[in-house]
């Protein structure tokens, strides 16, 4: 029996998001493994950067479009 994969929803450790992507959730709907953990909405607007409490992915809000 092989080892079981421990895939996280985020395949990268850092994501840049645009204001058009708000409200921000992790996993985001377009992520390949969108159902790896429960969806959580993240408050990125307060500080401009936030980490997901489930997978640790870091999200940074980019400048206005």
**How many strands appear in the DSSP assignment?**
5
Distance between the first and last residues' Cα: 49 Å
How much helicity do the residues have?
Answer: under 10%
- In round numbers, the mean pLDDT is 81
Describe what this molecule looks like in 3D:
Mean pLDDT is 81; it is low at 1-8. The radius of gyration is 13 Å and the shape is globular. The chain has a 3-stranded mixed sheet with strand order 1-5-4, with no helix packed on it. It has a two-stranded antiparallel ribbon with strand order 2-3. The protein has a domain at 22-61. It is mainly beta. The chain is built from no helices and 5 strands. It has strands spanning 14-17, 24-26, 40-42, 49-51, 58-61.
Q: What are the main properties of this structure?
A:
about 60 residues, mainly beta, three-stranded mixed β-sheet, two-stranded antiparallel ribbon, 5 strands, about 25% strand, disordered N terminus
In short:
The chain is mostly beta strands.
Secondary structure: elements and pairs:
Layout: E1 14-17, E2 24-26, E3 40-42, E4 49-51, E5 58-61
